[in-house]
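One record is kept unedited as follows:
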Amino acid sequence: MPSLADDFPELLQPREGPCLSLYQATHRRHPDNQQDPIRFRNGVKTLDESLRRQYPNRETRTLLEPFHALAENEAFWNRALDGLAVLAAPGFFRAYRLQRSVPERAIVADSFHLKPLLRMLQSADRYRILGLSRSEAKLYEGNRDSLDEVEWMAGVPRTPADVSGDERDVERATRHYGSPAAGKVTRHGTDVKQDAVDRETERFFRAVDRGVLAEHGGHDASPLLLAALPENHHLFRRVSRNPSLAAAALYSHPDSMPIESLRARAWELVQPYYLERLDGLVGAFEAARARHLASSDLADIGNAVVAGRVATLLIDADRVVPGTFDAQTGAVRFDDLAHPGIDDLLDDLAEAVLRQGGEVVVVPSERMPVPSGAAATYRY
């Protein structure tokens, strides 16, 4: 499965249409999950009908072939989470299992429908867990409600055997102890082998750190918790260069407890980071507003977005503001969701900010500093 966090910047970019977006709630367990493939096929039929109406003179069969293949993939449906997003365009197909349920949508347009993903991906309650031992590494992604193991990605070693090298240190030590030189202190073979094991572990930990940072770092500000036995914490923290590695940690391996217990313990550690981050964002907004470098007025924010002035945009997790945003002029217009073509103005503004390299954070209603649903801090 591709990583949604890694792919999201690409999903925001303009591309050749038609762009197909299919969303649905899914279920983790039998028998509830039996209906998921059936509802998925119904969504594909809706996409097919929309394609025939909007592109009557275009061959669109190849666009739907990956959808049909996914519908028949029993292994995929047996590993479902709480929601599903499937996006396709000419030469492009992605399916994402989601840790939160989403409303059913089957949309054909000139760009992807990303609002459900934006609300999920930009939420401030996200975190990751790196489960580490001398012999294996595991990565988990979670929020306050869910935690799931990540399907491992290329570039991140799962075991020491995945780390490239000319010859393994342990194998060299096992075969070549050599003769001590005159005047040198003789070391027992087991000591030499232990040194080699320690060097191999350090090499493995360094490779894991590099891979996690490359594949799951950079753009991702969510905290990374280390879950490992105490003896492995010091070494990994000594070699790690990941700025998201949290000081709080789990001093046991994830395999030693049920995943729900792991989630509960992790959230106890993450919640202070979560609250501190929200307080910092709200405080920065208030300080900027005192200097006339922030606003909660949606019309003002729209103009600032077009001008490239928005550094950070906070949006209310539970608020929907029906309307439209003109990405060329910055004009906003309020409307009614019942009208065709009208969507959530807050999400339109958020997508525009992300395309310009700004930061968007979805904030619980009770922690929003303003009632309008959006709070923007400006660059200048």
Summary: Residues 166-182 have pLDDT under 50 and may be disordered. The CA atoms of residues 18 and 55 lie 8 Å apart. The first strand starts at residue 19 and ends at 25.
